[in-house]
Design brief:
four-stranded antiparallel sheet; 312 residues; five-stranded mixed sheet
């Protein structure tokens, strides 16, 4: 009986740890501060909050291209003037596809800009977002702007606004698709993200978004960081993956909470000490989804993760 019990426990632990496929990890030693990732047409597009360019990787996470955004002499922008590009998604008009990249808006004027990039012609247009961000601040629910992620829904754009220890609120901002290419005139609706638990010693801030049209699920990366403002960095805590089901039906909800929370460190110890900044969807089947994530270690390097999450 003792031998049987030991074997049963060992098999149970192994089964639990083998629920998801192994995590694939790629370290980008020469790309700073990854803050956003998007996947389109077999390519990963990565932005860094103090980087000068968008990095393009192939399916095996090898560097295959780069899109220059700024003519700046140094490897990284200094913190006080960095563009703080945090959000990236793909838009389309007819058969033409674009990358939309947004600054966080957490420090005007440096972080109030974005980019619209034609993926076929590589034409790049800089966008001033002053009017849009001023409009956000006029909404009663938003007291500070710190945009950290964006994704495309069937109805338009969904943007997340991240809080901190001094402003303990996360929000989702919905923008109608008719304003895709006229953001400064966009109207917006805002929904609170309800944080689970009652721990006041830390704060879990939403850092990235991805949407599945196939299952109507919203995937959110969430991380804890000991900082009391949207400007300062803090000690890195833990990172999580949240899943909200049927998100397209919940735009008018007064508050949303995750249907599932995954502690990434418990799925694989490789996530320990990693501040996950963004997520994108690669592929999805009925019982599982393949995702990619990026992490920033605040030291000028970046890490990319590919993982499969099985649904219960």
């Amino acid at each position: 009986m003792k031998i049987f019990l030991v074997l049963f426990i060992a098999v149970s632990i192994f089964s639990c740890r083998s629920k998801n496929d192994p995590v694939v990890v790629k370290t980008l030693n020469h790309y700073p501060s990854a803050s956003g990732i998007e996947y389109f047409d077999n390519s990963f597009y990565i932005i860094g909050d103090d980087a000068k360019n968008i990095l393009v990787l192939d399916n095996d996470l090898n560097i295959k291209d780069s899109i220059s955004l700024y003519d700046f002499p140094d490897y990284r922008f200094p913190k006080d003037i960095k563009p703080d590009l945090e959000s990236i998604t793909v838009l389309h008009s007819g058969s033409t596809y674009y990358l939309l990249v947004l600054g966080s808006g957490s420090l005007s004027p440096y972080r109030n800009k974005g980019w619209l990039i034609n993926l076929a012609s590589k034409q790049k247009d800089s966008i001033s977002l002053d009017s849009l961000y001023s409009r956000f601040l006029s909404i009663n629910k938003l007291k500070e702007i710190n945009l950290e992620g964006v994704c495309s829904l069937p109805t338009g754009l969904l943007i997340t606004n991240r809080g901190h220890l001094g402003y303990r609120e996360n929000h989702l901002i919905f923008i109608d698709s008719s304003y895709y290419f006229n953001l400064n005139n966009a109207t917006a609706s805002v929904t609170n993200l309800i944080m689970p638990g009652t721990d006041t010693s830390s704060f879990s801030g939403v850092s990235g978004l991805a949407y599945s049209a196939k299952s109507d699920k919203l995937f959110l990366t969430v991380s804890t960081e000991m900082t009391a403002s949207s400007y300062e960095d803090g000690a890195i805590g833990k990172s999580y993956l949240w899943i909200i089901n049927n998100i397209s039906e919940k735009q008018l909800a007064s508050g949303l909470k995750p249907d599932k929370i995954i502690d990434l460190e418990l799925t694989d110890s490789i996530f320990k000490g990693q501040k996950i900044e963004s997520v994108c969807l690669i592929a999805e089947q009925k019982d599982k989804v393949q995702l990619a994530m990026v992490a920033d270690n605040d030291k000028g390097n970046s890490t990319v993760f590919k993982l499969t999450v099985k649904y219960d």
